Amino acid sequence: DAGITQSPRYKITETGRQVTLMCHQTWSHSYMFWYRQDLGHGLRLIYYSAAADITDKGEVPDGYVVSRSKTENFPLTLESATRSQTSVYFCASRVGERASPLHFGNGTRLTVT
Amino acid sequence: GESVGLHLPTLSVQEGDNSIINCAYSNSASDYFIWYKQESGKGPQFIIDIRSNMDKRQGQRVTVLLNKTVKHLSLQIAATQPGDSAVYFCAENNNNQGGKLIFGQGTELSVKP
Q1: Which fold has domain A4-112?
Q2: Which end of chain B has fewer CB within 10 Å, C or N?
Q3: Separation between Cα atoms, residue A14 and residue B18, nearest integer Å
Q4: Residue B94 has pLDDT above 90, yes or no
């Protein structure tokens, strides 16, 4: 089963460049999420979306932009990458708002030089 | 337990022994809890969940115990195998935060053959 697919798996970019991380899910889940994972900070929520065209900020949204024109896609854009955005980024989806598990993709490892 | 600083708590067990991983959660309003397993280079994988109206739930080789009085969650793995080596996270669903999951820092389980 395809589940959630993230691309690319690895990305190296330079400070100041724009970069977009892609996320695609095949379950038609309503909710989608973007997390970053850093040593010492665990998983931190960047943005989430309750449905197409509905997005909201999480814990660490600064420097990121999201869109959700279709239910199955939830791209994350770093408008002007900074070294502090070097991290592993995980996309996740959830069938409903509460009381159901998030299902994660395998992540994108982003390095900003 | 929860991590302090940059180092995850580590639990080392012998193959075949039972493992118990603990987690303290933060909010008495949380009503749903999940355990995830994360292997190196992969996204978190759902293991088992429990709602706050229960104090125990069993899966295949895993049991989750919930003690709401002391806000404590544990994951028990029976007959631990080398393939169980991973980082384990607990997550709580806090109704006061729009249903967003809050993740613990994780515990690294190391299984010795």
Answers
A1: Immunoglobulin-like (2.60.40)
A2: C
A3: 47
A4: no
8 Å CB contact between A66 and A49: yes
Q: How many domains does chain B have?
A: 1
Name the residue among A43, A99, A106 with its Cβ closest to that of B103: A43
| Contact between chains at B103 and A104 (C-beta distance less than 8 A) | no
Residue-wise pLDDT for B36-79, tens only, equals 999 999 999 999 999 999 999 999 999 999 999 999 999 999 99
CA dist A57 to A31, A44, A85, A86, Å?
A: 13, 11, 17, 20
Residue B54 lies in a domain: yes
**Residue B44's domain spans which residues?**
29-82
The nearest alpha carbon in chain A to B97 belongs to A58
| Contact (CB<8Å) B46/A101 | yes
Distance from CA of B105 to the nearest CA of A (A): 5
Cβ separation A97–B104 shorter than 8 A? no
CA-nearest residue of chain B to A97?
B99
**CATH at B49:** 2.60.40.10
Q: Give the domain ranges of chain A.
A: 4-112
Is residue B50 included in any domain, yes or no? yes
Distance, in Å, from the CA atom of A77 to the CA atom of A99, rounded to the nearest integer, reads 29
- The tokens for A85 are 């955005």
